[in-house]
Amino acid sequence: MLAFTQKTALIVYAHQSPGSFNAAVRDVAMQELVNQGYKVIVSDLYAMNFRANATRDDINGDLKKSELFQYGEETMHAWMEGRLSDDIVAEQRKVEEADLIIFQFPLYWFSVPAIMKGWIDRVLTQGFAFSLKTMYNNGVFKDKKAMLSFTTGAIQTMFRPDGINGDINVTLWPLQNGILHFCGFQVLAPQIFWSPAHCPPAVRTAMLDGWRARLKGLLAEKPLTFAPCELFDLSFQGGFMLRPEVKEERESQPYGFTTGHHLGKPLPPDNQIAAQSAGESSAKTGCSK
C-alpha cells in the first residue's frame, strides 16, 4: 500500500481587516484545501506585524563588508551560514514545506501592498530562492506552484488593452515573471476579483463560489507560459540575450513569446492571465515545464 504524502499550501495574506472580502477569499481557500487533504499554513502579515523594511537587522553577527552594506550579498552569506533573523527563517521554512503558495491581497498601486513586498524582499533571499545558475525555469522552486489571488478597485474593462489602466497582462508581468517565475515557481493563472467593493452581495457570493470551484481542480491546471532559459545565451559575453537563431525563427510568428518578450510584436493574448492551450504550448513558443 502506498503511503499518503500530505501536500502543504501556504497562504501569504495581506489585509488589515478580518471582515474584508480578501479575508473571505482566504477562508474559502483554507476550507477547500483542507477538504482536499492539504495542510494549510497562513502567514497573516498584518496580524504578525511583519516588518517590511530590509535592513541590517535581518543579519545576525558581523557583516562581510561593513564599509558598504549591500543587502543582497549580506543576506546571501547570512543564509548560507544560518545567520538570518528569526522571522525570515520562520517564513523560509514555510516556503520550503509548501507545495503551493497563494499570495492573497488587494491590488495597491498596480502591485502588492508594502508589507507583502517586504515579505518578498526579505524572505526570498539570494541563495535560498535564486542564483544566476538557478533562476526562471531552472529555478530553486521549480517543483512548487504559486499564484496571485487579489482584489481590485477598478472594474475589469479598465484593465483591458484599450482601458484607462492599460493591459492587466502588462501590470502582472513584473510580479509573475520577475518574482514568482524568476524563483522557479510554476505560476498558475491569477485569481482576480474585479471591484468587489462595488458589487452587490449576490455578485460577491458568486465570486467566492467561483473561487471554490476553481480550487477543486487547481493543481491539475497548466501553468502560465514563459520563455525558457534554454532560448537565451546565458553568459555575460552573450548578454543573456535571446539566441539569434531563435529570434530568426520567431520572425514569422504573429505574436511575441510572452508579455515581456514581445520582440516588438503584438503581445500574445492573455499571456499573464490564462494558460495556453495544448496546441499553443511548445518549446518554440517558450513554454517552460
Question: Mind explaining what this structure looks like?
Answer:
- This protein is globular.
- The chain starts with 7 loop residues before the first strand and ends in a 39-residue tail after the last helix.
- It is α/β, with parallel strands linked by helices.
- It has helices spanning 21-35, 45-48, 71-80, 86-97, 114-123, 168-181, 201-216, 244-250, and strands at residues 8-13, 39-44, 100-106, 145-151, 186-187, 191-193.
- α1 (21-35) packs parallel to α7 (201-216).
- The protein contains 8 helices and 6 strands.
- Strands 1, 2, 3, 4, 5 and 6 form a 6-stranded parallel sheet that branches.
Sequence of secondary-structure elements: EHEHHHEHEHEEHH
* Global mean pLDDT: 92
Question: Could you name the ranges where pLDDT drops below 50 across 5 or more consecutive residues?
Answer: 278-289
Strand residue percentage: 5-15%
Number of strands: 6
Number of domains: 2
- Judging by the overall fold, what is the CATH architecture of the largest domain? 3-Layer(aba) Sandwich
Shape: globular
Q: How far apart are the termini? A: 30 Å
Roughly what percent helix? Answer: 25-40%
Give the structure's gist in a few sentences:
The protein has 289 residues and is of the alpha/beta class. The chain contains eight helices and six strands. Helix content is 30%, strand content 11%.
Task: Indicate the topology.
Elements: E1 8-13, H1 21-35, E2 39-44, H2 45-48, H3 71-80, H4 86-97, E3 100-106, H5 114-123, E4 145-151, H6 168-181, E5 186-187, E6 191-193, H7 201-216, H8 244-250
Parallel strand pairs: 1-2, 1-3, 3-4, 4-5, 4-6
Helix pairs in contact: 1-7
